[in-house]
Amino acid sequence: MQVLLTQTVEKLGQPGDVVNVAPGYARNYLLPKGLAVEPTPHNVQRFQKTREKRVTEMKEREEQAKALKQKLDGTVLTFYRKSHDKKIYSSVRPEEIASQLSEQFRAEIEKGRVRIESPIEALGRHPVKIELYKDITAEIRVEVVEESPSSHVG
Fold it and tell me: What topology is assigned to 2-60 in CATH?
């Protein structure tokens, strides 16, 4: 059965999309909850503007992500930590990386977009991926340097 989505439905589609679903799913869930309507010509036309606006917004986000990727790629962030035998006392966490990137590049980067397998707990350079948008990912390096009495604390 075909329905026209009026709201975003996870793993199904966005407002304005006409999708095929099981009749029971449409009758018992999508239609009663107002998540979809019958795809009449009037309804399709009514949601066409919503769909066009969403497509424009997605293109803008993608362009912004591509521009940010160009700025971020190859960036090296330095963190100073006290250490003993190359083991640091305070690990470098995704929220610190996101915060420093946001500050340095004046762009909102959430900690959930910072991809490291586990907190960084050793001196040296570590590759880090930043997921910007869909399949657009920037690659940066985090350098953890031993803190000395005269080094910058940050």
Answer: Ribosomal Protein L9; domain 1 (3.40.5)
Strand partners, 87: 84, 122
Task: Give me the residue spans of the domains in the chain.
Answer: 2-60, 73-146
Beta bridge partners of 80: 145
pLDDT, one tens digit per residue, over 114-147 is 999 888 998 999 999 999 998 999 999 999 999 8
| Model confidence at 151: pLDDT above 80 | no
Transcribe 81-117 into DSSP letters: E-EETTEEEEEE-HHHHHHHHHHHHT----GGGEE-S
The reported pLDDT for the residue numbered 49 is 83
Residue 124: other Cβ atoms inside 10 A? 12
Q: How many CB atoms lie within 10 A of CB 39?
A: 17
Is the pLDDT reported for residue 96 higher than 90?
Answer: yes
Bridge partners of residue 143, in order along the sequence: 78, 125
Q: Give me the CATH code for the 73-146 domain, please.
A: 3.10.430.100
